[in-house]
User: Fold this.
Amino acid sequence: MNEHRPEDPSADRAPSPADAPRRKLDAGSLRGLAHPLRMRLLDELRMNGPATSARLSERTGESTGTISWHLRHLAEHGFIEEESGRGTKRERWWRAVPGAIVLAATDFDQDPGSRAALSVYQAENLRRQYRRAADSMAAEWEGEWRGTGTVSDWSNLRLTPAQLQALIDDLATVVTRHTPDPDAAPDPAARPVIVQIQALPRKESDRS
Assistant:
């Protein structure tokens, strides 16, 4: 799961239980993660469960050699780990390390060397969020799932920074309250759901 801070409004967020581990990105781990394919591989392992480089190659269209290189890179930075007791030396199974990833963009204000990685990370987060929403809207849903979901926009709020943060915290609390216990048996009628929250300050046009 990923979590954002108000200093980084483009980061991906999936609220997690209060006792879930959190990892705050530093310059090294940010550079280790800030690559479109590595971010996609981490998404695949988080959303679809453990996989081998061969399976991930089929899903992404990249060669197994390329996938293996990026998986090792993710493992070196602690984002994924080998699943013990499964696979062989020739076929390793990888899984995502559980917990939220926290990024505060202001941490890198005095670190010009990390600006490029920060830009890649933020831009890729936005692309991933768009793709997830677009894929859902383009899918053919049946039964009770047809017509569910929403894409809403409230653009007329005027808030202080503290009020904006309070709104973000409240929204996260609501989503967390509806997040099932990961150890509980899933409801047979349930399916994966994506919740994306974007609460951003807006530049006003010059009215002079």
